[in-house]
Design a protein that fits this description.
By secondary structure, this protein is mainly α. It has helices at residues 6-42, 58-68.
Amino acid sequence: MSDPGSWLLGLGLLALVVGLIVYWLIALVVLIIPTWRICDRAGFSGALALFHLLPGIGSLIVLAVLAFGTWPNGEGKPADRGGQ
């Protein structure tokens, strides 16, 4: 016969798994949307932001491409200071 408290352990494990999935989805939305816009403005395909879906290494790939790649739209230029 099973332990009467085992259902509580199962419920806690389920809550942990669901919580981790929700946290992961929120983190992805927070990362993917801004990265998509940055990639578009830099001249890259916005789909580059989908590398964030790869656990562990995906964000490093995106950062490496943005940091060390040649931007098709050119590097950011300082704002015009109006005659200085």
